[in-house]
Amino acid sequence: MSEPLRDIFIRNLKYYRKQSGLSQEKLSYAINMSMNYINQLENKNSFPPPEIIDKISNVLKIKPVKLFDENQCPTNI
After folding, report:
1. Going by C-beta distance under 8 Å and a sequence separation of 6 or more, which residues neighbour residue 32?
2. Could you say which DSSP state residue 3 is in?
3. What is the pTM of this model?
4. Are 31 and 52 in contact (CB under 8 A)?
């Protein structure tokens, strides 16, 4: 059974954010959102609309699809 898409997104978001050396706070500011926005995403309290996914992927310098690929990052982050 495959992993839920939201869980894949969160795992990949955490992985690429950490790979980029960005804190949740710095990524939030980089996409012009509130200081706690990334925390809300990573804790499953919110899910971003497509425009925010584009902003996040631009800041992380990845294609948006990488945030949804279940084979993109290690599972033990």
Report:
1. 55
2. P
3. 0.89
4. yes
